[in-house]
Amino acid sequence: MTRVVVIGAGAAGLSCGLSLLDAYRARGGTIQQSGSAAMATDGSAHGVSLCVLEARDQIGGRVFSERHGSFVVETGAATVQETAPGLRELFERLQLQDEQVYSDDRAKRRYVYRAGRLRRLPMKPPEILSSDALSIPARARLLAEPLVPPRAHTLTDESVQSFFERRLGRRVTNEIVEPALAGIYAGDIAELSMPSALPRLWQMEREHGSLLKALRHSQATNKGTPTAPRLCGLRGGLGRLMQAMGRAIDSQGGRVRPLSAVRSIRVADPGSGRYCMELAETSLVADELILAVPPPEAARLLADLDPQLSTVYRSIGMAPIVAISLGWPREQVPHPLDGFGFLVPRIERMRDGLRLLGALFMTSALPDFEQAPKGQVVIRAMYGGAHDPEVERMADGELLEQVQRDLRTTLGIWNEPRFIHIQRWPQAIEQYRLGHAARVAEIEVRLRALGHLHATGAALYGVSVPDVLRNGRELGQRIADALPLS
Ligand SMILES: Cc1cc2nc3c(=O)[nH]c(=O)nc-3n(C[C@H](O)[C@H](O)[C@H](O)COP(=O)(O)OP(=O)(O)OC[C@H]3O[C@@H](n4cnc5c(N)ncnc54)[C@H](O)[C@@H]3O)c2cc1C
To answer: Under CATH, domain 2-60+238-316+433-482 is a member of which superfamily?
Structure first.
């Protein structure tokens, strides 16, 4: 029997474990109950056993939903793109398709804070001219983008800042690109790598020579279909997707074990290709071991096995985020909240003394989510990021004063919130800095040399939940395809 162990029950680890079991079963393989007597023997039983080890008392990692009375809080990820590859199949596999909730047209509308108030971002190129979300010189420069020649194809890496300053100019970069990137990576655009952080836009320049030309081309070829895909979540919270994956693993004979932090990994016996893991009160042996933990933890676990691999993982930094969910009766929020939310550019934060990166209008983004009592709204304010890591260490009281001050300035809310939830993520988002592709390539090479040790997770091929699910799924299927059936 092949004993497979996954370390980390976040989106990546759960997706990898579930796909591995599904793919192995589809090949006609037998799943042995993990943790049973068969698990302890080595080779007497056929098939595969699977155990997913999770350090915390709950599974899901950065996709987790908490109920507080009549409010549901998304502590991490809240929405995914409906059309992301493999997502529909996953919801169907877990029989969650009737529980999906979608954004409506309002969520396409986004705001940016500029010169003292929120302004609507242009949705289509023709709206750029009339939109006051950008200063007049920025609008003019944006429209001139197709005239900027593309950079040589031989260039393999470039910072996000350099790419956009070259294509769109410094003003547009400061007014739109910087806050948008803070919304995804909470990162520093001077450090983020364009081909790794925004591969589609990087490719657009290569294929069409210009971003606006690429946009026009895609609008012409997709005539009649909506350009921006809908966002979706789950009634009761996206965390239910993680719970359902955990249950599906258990019901197939695998085992998901919360409160099972792996302390260390070593080679079980030289030449065997097996790995041994130390947990608090026990140890486990794996014939195939999958690391599905964030980079700092991967670096720690790999320090003795392969110091160089550990160093590469350590060099993938993480930015912190503090997400504060606040609830009010609808009438106490003067803004119409007719959009997905708003962003605050760094230049505006510095000018007006704000610390807020941006805020999501949660109850507008997914109107059928039912995350607040009727007649109340929830806004999720985001703080921290690469430029303001100190926020993570601020006391709750200080944070509340800050968020109330910032929302008074941006949304005109003067009332005390009826509901408050503060979520701190000291290690929130992986930073795909310059050289990221080379780092990932080195990780792949070194893992191959280690044999039956694999890795997945947001450190590698995209930080969005669908990217992480896809990467986990592909790895699980690849391992299952290579496993012996008897
Ligand atoms: C505030 C916030 C908002 C976000 N919003 C969105 C969004 O709206 N849409 C979107 O697509 N993405 C969003 N993301 C990004 C997305 O949530 C993450 O990139 C993704 O969930 C990461 O999944 P993962 O499995 O790689 O890592 P994780 O979710 O971190 O899972 C790793 C797991 O490993 C466990 N672990 C660590 N060490 C050990 C150990 N030694 N032994 C056992 N277990 C261990 C951890 O406890 C954790 O459960 C958001 C992230 C944050 C923080």
So the answer is: FAD/NAD(P)-binding domain (3.50.50.60)
pTM reported for the whole predicted model? 0.95
State whether the beta carbon of 463 lies less than 6 angstroms from ligand 1. yes
Backbone angles phi, psi at 483, to 5 degrees: -80, 145
Tell whether ligand 1 has an atom less than 6 A from the beta carbon of residue 74: no
Mean of the per-residue pLDDT values for the chain? 93
What's the whole-number mean pLDDT along residues 24-53?
78
Q: Identify the architecture of domain 124-148+157-221 in CATH.
A: Orthogonal Bundle (1.10)
Specify the fold of 79-85+101-107+318-430: Polyamine Oxidase; Chain A, domain 2 (3.90.660)
How do residues 262-294 score in pLDDT, each as one tens digit? 999 999 988 888 999 999 999 999 999 999 999
Is the beta carbon of 293 within 6 A of some atom in ligand 1? yes
Residue nearest to atom 5 of ligand 1 (CA): 77
Q: Which residues pair with 275 in a beta bridge?
A: 267, 286
Q: Is 80 in the pocket of ligand 1 (CB under 6 A)?
A: yes
Contact present, 2 and 484 (Cβ < 8 Å): yes
Q: For residue 39, what pLDDT band results from cuts at 50, 70 and 90?
A: very low
Closest ligand 1 atom to 8 CA: 34
At 37 the pLDDT is 44
**CB-CB contact of 350 with 151 (8 Å):** no
Does the C-beta of 233 come closer than 6 Å to ligand 1? no
Count how many Cα atoms sit within 13 Å of the Cα of residue 130 in the half-sphere of its side chain: 4
